[in-house]
Amino acid sequence: MIKRAVAKDAEELTVKPVKRKPFSWDKASAILVLVPSLAALGIFVYGFIAWTGYLSLTNWNSYIPNLSFAGLKNYVAVFETFRFQSDIRNLVVFTALFVLGCLALGLFLAVLIDQKIRFESLFRSIFIFPMAISFVATGVIWSWVLNPQTGVNLILRALGDKHPPNWFLSTAIDPSITVGLIQLGIPLALVAVTVAAIWQMSGFAMAIYLAGLRAIPEEIKEAARIDGAGSWRLFWSVIFPQLKSSTVTAVIILSAASLKVFGLIYAMTGPGQDFTTDMPTLNMFETTFQGSQFAEGAAIATILFLIMAAFSIPYLISVLRKEEGA
Q1: Which of 4, 191, 222, 240 has most Cβ atoms within 10 angstroms of its Cβ?
Q2: Which of 198, 195, 201, 194 is nearest to 131 (CA)?
Q3: At 176, which helix (H) or strand (E)?
């Protein structure tokens, strides 16, 4: 009896071979529909990324193609220039001010709208509307608004300010600490550009935070109120920690947007005097298509891609892990 029971258990524990599902036209048609998109993605996105990386290692810095191997020469040449060092400083300053400004203003607007006010949908549309405007149009509009001769300075002069700011025409850097070829600090002209960028993208942060606020269960808020938490305590100790995932998402996407900023700078200020408002994207465009330094332009593009990957890949990995754990 014992032997029969053991044999029966062994049969049950034996792993049965997995039968492959038969061919179906539904599965084949789904694959055929995806093939053109995958091919286009592979060629026009990843293929061109690989081609740009390859060009950055060549000697093609004139109208005549020269694909001979140059190693890291172009990267060294780019990093040694005053313009690219200024670009890195400007990129760090712009990203920090832009992300913090969008988060603060977006959270403030989201909290206001979450108070169940009248005409909520109207205010929500008004705050999100700037995102529908192109960065070039935003740059032109704010270059008029902040023009030292015809913009808000007319109001400041009427109010008695005899020395209104020069906004994006200023060349001052505060504080000014000389390191290598450049001065570290905040270029004041870049602050004017950042104001325009915050105006355009704070509605996005508002939408992210509003979705996060609406996802917090009312039971948690009610329990905090019963425990005696006031409005500020309720927000800071209960609501704000619940918005951590919204904040991380907004930081990643806004940081990626700041790395790609081009149209706003191009339309509003250009590189600026002493490159006070220049960005790596603008440098890459002019180096490649106006200076015909194709390999150096590709090196700048590759550096930008690596910086963007450093921001995006950890976020994508965390999202995938959450989906697998769900």
Answers
A1: 191
A2: 201
A3: strand 173-179
